[in-house]
Structures are given as structure tokens and as C-alpha cells.
Design a protein that fits this description.
The protein is α+β, with helices and mostly antiparallel strands and about 180 residues long. The chain contains four helices and eight strands.
Length: about 180
């Protein structure tokens, strides 16, 4: 599956003001629902729980809203593919060109074959041609220059991951501003 096409098993989380906050797996959204942190605003057709004796049926959540206000910036940023791309503004750190998310991957500056770890300080966003050119070499060995050294961010803007998506489920469309879907 294309990494930039949202799976119907993914849930959009809106902040309490109805703005896109983040994307998570449906299981995390259900956990947040049962702990009282979110309310469900839209569902997929897929039933994830059914108890015919009690007449209970639960569908997979497509969009949920946080019940408490959040800050404009997420603190203690979790390492993930999308967060690396947000940190790097969807710009290849070798050629400097901005790309859609499906045209990017992340690259180990010190390759894993040479002991490089998958951590904030060793991962940068790269386009596929630059990643292929670099291969399993360091930037110096590949005669490529990094635009900016990788670093662990303290905060990330919350709406950027949704803005980078090429396609979103139909259930999300009423909750995402039109300009957000023109990546």
C-alpha cells in the first residue's frame, strides 16, 4: 500500500476546536474513547465489536475529537516517519526539493550497515532518487551534502501531517479544510 494513502483503519483526531490534530490507528482511538478523552464524530462501515445478546454494535472510528483543549504544539515528540518529514518540512535534505509524502522516505545518515541507529539524530527526509544515489554510504562517501544535520525536535506543529497527505478517507473530508487536501 502507498505510505501516503490513508488506510481505512486509521483515525483522524481533531483537537477540541475541531482542527486536525493527528492521525492514529483505530485501536488507539478506541482506547482514548474508553478512557473518556475523545468522542466519535464519524465511523467507518466496519464493525469492530458486536454483542447480539445486548444489542451492542461498535463501528471502527474514522474521526474523533479530543474533549480537552490541547496546546498548539505537541511536546515530547515521538519518533515516527511522518514526524521526521514534518520536522524536515517535507524537503529532501540532500537535494533541497519539497515533495509530497509519497515521494519521500527517510534515510539513515550513518547507514544501518555501518552501525547507524534509527533515531532522530541519524534520520533525515530524502527523496527516492537521492536515497538511491546515497545507498549504503555516508553522505561524505556518496559526495552528497546534507542541508541540515538531523536533530530531535522539541515541538512540532500539529496540523502539518494531515496537510501532507495525498488522499484521505471520505469520512474525513467534512473535517479537513479544502486547502489541506491540495498537497
Amino acid at each position: 500500500m502507498n505510505p501516503n494513502t490513508i488506510s481505512p483503519t486509521t483515525t483522524l483526531i481533531l483537537n477540541s476546536y475541531m482542527a486536525p490534530h493527528r492521525v492514529c490507528c483505530w485501536q488507539d482511538a478506541v482506547t482514548e474513547l474508553f478512557t473518556g478523552k475523545v468522542e466519535v464524530l464519524a465511523e467507518y462501515d466496519e464493525v469492530i465489536y458486536k454483542n447480539e445478546v445486548r444489542g451492542i454494535e461498535m463501528k471502527m472510528p474514522a474521526v474523533v475529537r479530543l474533549l480537552k483543549a490541547t496546546s498548539l504544539f505537541k511536546r515530547g515528540v515521538k519518533f515516527s516517519r511522518i514526524n521526521v518529514m514534518v520536522r524536515d518540512s517535507f524537503v529532501c535534505q540532500y537535494c533541497g526539493k519539497k515533495h509530497r509524502m509519497d515521494e519521500l522516505n527517510y534515510d539513515h545518515v550513518l547507514p544501518r550497515a555501518k552501525g547507524g541507529k534509527t533515531v532522530w539524530e541519524n534520520i533525515v527526509t530524502s527523496c527516492y532518487p537521492c536515497n538511491d544515489k546515497k545507498g549504503s554510504k555516508t553522505p561524505a562517501e556518496a559526495k552528497m551534502r546534507l542541508l541540515r544535520a538531523p536533530f530531535r525536535p522539541k515541538t512540532l506543529p500539529l496540523e502539518r501531517p494531515v496537510l501532507a497527505l495525498r488522499s484521505v478517507p471520505e469520512e474525513w473530508r467534512p473535517f479537513i479544510p479544502d486547502e489541506s487536501m491540495s498537497a
